[in-house]
Amino acid sequence: MRAVFLRFASSVSSAALVLLSVSSVALVLSASVLAQTKQERAGIVNFTKVDAVVACGGATDTAALEGLAKDGFKAVINLRMPTEKGANLEENAARAKEVGLKYISIPFNGQQPDPAVFDKFLATIADKSNQPVYVHCASATRVGAVWLTKRVLQDGWTVEKATEEARLIGLGNPVLEKFALSYIDSHKK
Fold it and tell me: Residues 7, 71: one domain?
């Protein structure tokens, strides 16, 4: 009887260890996407720290650039169109230069997405001299679209995982999501 109990206890322990291991792996995999959480940051809408070298957000006040520089960011990629209300591209470029940030404007018209914008973004984000980098637009929707392509084409993520992260960042426009996915399909090697 005791031998039967010991075999039973041993198989229960083994099953529990397997279940615990599988659960741990699933938790680690989901945490890699869920780690991108919104943070409160003065002067920045939808601020998200994506990883050690990239943060992103929406509308960014000129005054917030100094804080980004103090936090060690080297560059700002602005996806806003010069004609957008509140874009302040010239003012932001001047302030970025004053506080020691490289300022890169890549105007992205969300109504008429252009593959050349994605090409330029991917080249800019891959340039290590721009890191750590802060990427923004008005709401983080356009950021989510270009980030989705970066994750799949440069980082080797699955489309599903990259899309989930892009939505957490701010991608909420089905047209931009479809455009990004089409861009990925036409640029896969």
Answer: no
Structural domain span for residue 4: 1-34
- Between the two ends of the chain, the Cα-to-Cα distance in Å is 62
76, 21: one domain = no
8 CB-near residues (< 8 Å, 6+ apart): none
Q: Hey, how many other C-beta atoms are within 10 angstroms of the C-beta on 62?
A: 14
Q: Count structural domains, the chain.
A: 2
Residue 70 and residue 135 share a domain: yes
> Whose CA is closest to 142, among 185, 164, 112, 101?
112
pTM of the predicted model, to two decimals? 0.81
For residues 24 and 77, membership in a common domain is answered with no
User: 57-73, pLDDT tens digit by residue?
Assistant: 999 999 999 999 999 99
Specify whether 19 is located in the same domain as 56. no
In tens, the pLDDT along 20-76 reads 333 333 333 343 444 467 788 999 999 999 998 999 999 999 999 999 999 999 999
Better-predicted residue by pLDDT, 82 or 33: 82
Among residues 148, 145, 147, which one has the least CA distance to residue 113? Answer: 145
| Tokens 């103090």, located at residue | 70
